[in-house]
Amino acid sequence: MPGNIQTIELRGLPALRLSTASGANAALSLYGGQVLSWQPRPGDERIYLSEAVQVDGRSALRGGVPVCFPQFGEQGALPRHGFARTAMWSVIEQRTGDDFALATLQLVDSPETRSLWPHPFTLELTVALEGERLDLELEVINSGHAPIAFNAALHTYLRVAEVEECRLEGLYGFNYQDALKGGEVRRESGDALIIDDAVDRIYHDVTRPLLLRESARALGINHDGFPDVVVWNPWEDGNARIADMKAGDFRRMLCVEGAAAHRRIELGAGESWFGRQTLVTL
């Protein structure tokens, strides 16, 4: 039995529901080009989406997998994380087959984007659902006649049962920039990252797959094309300052994201770049 793709409305937003015969499903919002849900098995939600999310057509959606482009965080003059996560994307491809479903969304430059960032571009986000695996690929195409430089990330909010019981493995030995220590660069010395306080780090040039362990389950995380890994959790005090996040929700999420945040990606006219993130239940 083949996979299936349906056009739906989710939280009042136009979206696609991807599903497979084995019971896996994912939801992809056209607003922001953003994955909002992934269940590798029925009822086994692996993506955090805030119940207090603001859906007003202007604000970024708290949770899911926001696309950060062409700026990461506040590392520039653009709105935080750029404009892609608050833009409407269009569907350019849908494919299904024996137990898989794939959809590609596209965002191209417009008068609104050029008023913020005066460059022609095309973004394509491909989401593929197969078995207990979710693949996301972001492609950036320089459709203009001059070089461009940008940052990008797939800002993945992973849903966890209890963040204090998680172990993120695979980062040992890599340098990271600690935003909570004034941008100080340190070296990861532990065999696993344990979240017991606020964390906001950019790990540089990560070359190994990661493994997120919880008490009863594990998730493999692999990045291709993205040189960096960002790990973020606001902890209790930070959670309290986030209006669109319910009290205590910091315990239910951990951001582990593929990113090009430390250095900008440079593309000549007509060139393209891609970054891929793969999540696999183990």
UniProtKB/TrEMBL annotation:
Belongs to the glucose-6-phosphate 1-epimerase family. This is Putative glucose-6-phosphate 1-epimerase. The active site is at residues 155, 257. It holds the Pfam family Aldose_epim. One of its GO terms (cellular component) is cytoplasm. It comes from the Bacteria. It catalyses: alpha-D-glucose 6-phosphate = beta-D-glucose 6-phosphate. It comes from Pseudothauera lacus. PANTHER family: APOSPORY-ASSOCIATED PROTEIN C-RELATED (PTHR11122), GLUCOSE-6-PHOSPHATE 1-EPIMERASE (PTHR11122:SF13). Gene3D superfamilies: 2.70.98.10. Keywords: Isomerase.
